[in-house]
Amino acid sequence: MDSFLKREGTPATLPLKPGTLLDYQGRTVKVIETISLERVMVNDESSGQIINAPIYQLKPLIVSDSSTATLTASSSRDYADYGDKEWTEINRRFDIIFPLLSAQSRTLDDVKAVSESSGFSVAMIYNMIKRFEATQSKTSLLPRKRGRRKGTRLLDAKVEAVIAEGIRLHYLTAQKKSVVRVADFIETRCRTLSIEPPSVGAVRKRINDLEPKKTKRARHSHSESKQEIDQVETGIPGAERPLDFIQIDHTQVNTIVVDEHDRMPLGRPWITLAIDVNTRCVLGIYLSLDSPSFVSVGSAISNMLLTKHDYLASLELSVEWPMYGAPRKIGADNGADFKSNYLTRSVEDYPFSIEWRPLGGTNFGGHIERLMSTFSLWVRELPGATFANPKERGDYDSESQAAMTLYELEQFIVRHICEKYHKTPHKGLRGATPYQEWERGILGSPGQPGVGMPSVYSDPNRVRIDFLPFFYRTITRSGITYKNIPYQDIELFGSERLARERKSEEERKSLFRIDPRDITRIWMWDPVLEGYHVIPCAVRDMPAISLSEFKAHERELKNRNEAHDAFSIARHAEDNYQLVEDAKEKTKQAKAKRKSTERRKYNAMKSVKPESSLPNEASPLQSTNGFVDVDIAAFEGAEEW
């Protein structure tokens, strides 16, 4: 993995419509047509060769033409910086062009009809479609004024970083400091760093560009701002085509999983699933021992957005799962894990919205709840199943019978989804399978055109980063610590600490992101370079375990009253792993020894003559005087040698 990840706007996407120019293995190709749900036919622009290309191997075409480049780059503004009026206009324009975006064939008459109903010219409609398809970012639809683009920053990047920190620490607080007070602080900080301070007007301009909702929440109490902030309307949208509406929910799996190394029971994991209401296909999944949170939801959403090739490869599975893509709407309940500010901010600039289940709306999540009920039946035959109630469980000891690791359980679930669930006739689909409905809805059928292949996100890592949890820490000489796990990059942290050493405690904090599935590295945000640095765990021998596994090892050491720092936990995890490996080797040796013993015993048994049926009678070959009495007559007539 690269040590630095540049973050510029929304991740680029690859439209797979005929005529699109893409990169395939270093060659410029043009999409001709869709062959299947996982492949497209492309034409090599240089050689004219026709290629049957897997969609996961297609990449965005790097062009030098400046006019094209402006279309392939999203706005440099963060989506949290857009105001309410701007978002209203952005969403209005998106709703206008959405029917044209989702149509497999787009005619001039279709565009003219939208033009007449919306008041935009035909050229403007085409322009908005072109911008959105190139970026898959709704903010690209915002009208651009002539001259210098709004939001353009002319100040030095270091000055901008100081302004941003000053606003965050001194303006967006309940103290309600004035702009002048904030500007005074920024001026002092700049002079300390020997850089030219900005004017009060420059600071005021950046404060005015803040999102009103964000400002009100930060500077006013909940009761003060509640009346001023509009709440999201709820409703049940239609689902006439694939990706029109996705439902997401969690459930706890009725199976106990074991640790990968020592095979000790870890508990029941939670699963988050995303289902396409129209086709009943599963588009996203996330399995974890952690309770549901925005991490679960965000991970399921990123899994839904991306093609499944890399994910299936990580599970070592060779199954078909061609379902992916950005939906129009996502339906979710009102739990804190769904309605977190972090999740709302993460999905803001993606081309879909989240709709919350209305209070008392029992039918709103019916499809996902039925899927969860079906899912509970899949796992009841697995070792370690806990069943639905004590009566069903009977005398079955779930913990002692548990045998599957989290990884093995995920393999089982994904294989079941792809090979059985997607290919089993569904009553709600008039006897068709979810796979058939997805294929029909995407590629079309006689008399019924499909919606076309969803655009592919060209940078999967960037999509995953957008949905990772974040935290703030102050960099010290020993690095930083997150949940008892130390992270260190001596060179990078050293320069960063020196740049912030004269600041207050709050001002010295930096932004980090962590993937809870692998604690061996985190990402640190660099406000000057506008990208992420990858920071390794300070415990070099730390195995690639999840945060939940780390916590389980920590609890075990605590219960044994032993040291439970990160180094001890790493040793404990490795020792457990080595114990298992040694046990496996001893088991092999014991099996070989038992096999050898059994072989000798069997051979010995074969060489021993059967006992006499008359054990109390003297054998004809036995003598009480120590000599053997032999009946010579018995050998008469024997051949001599």
UniProtKB/TrEMBL annotation:
<protein>
    <submittedName>
        <fullName>TniA transposase</fullName>
    </submittedName>
</protein>
<feature type="compositionally biased region" description="Basic residues">
    <location>
        <begin position="589"/>
        <end position="598"/>
    </location>
</feature>
<dbReference type="InterPro" id="IPR036397">
    <property type="entry name" value="RNaseH_sf"/>
</dbReference>
<feature type="domain" description="Integrase catalytic">
    <location>
        <begin position="238"/>
        <end position="442"/>
    </location>
</feature>
<feature type="compositionally biased region" description="Polar residues">
    <location>
        <begin position="613"/>
        <end position="622"/>
    </location>
</feature>
<dbReference type="GO" id="GO:0003676">
    <property type="term" value="F:nucleic acid binding"/>
</dbReference>
<dbReference type="InterPro" id="IPR001584">
    <property type="entry name" value="Integrase_cat-core"/>
</dbReference>
<dbReference type="InterPro" id="IPR012337">
    <property type="entry name" value="RNaseH-like_sf"/>
</dbReference>
<feature type="region of interest" description="Disordered">
    <location>
        <begin position="212"/>
        <end position="231"/>
    </location>
</feature>
<dbReference type="GO" id="GO:0015074">
    <property type="term" value="P:DNA integration"/>
</dbReference>
<feature type="region of interest" description="Disordered">
    <location>
        <begin position="584"/>
        <end position="622"/>
    </location>
</feature>
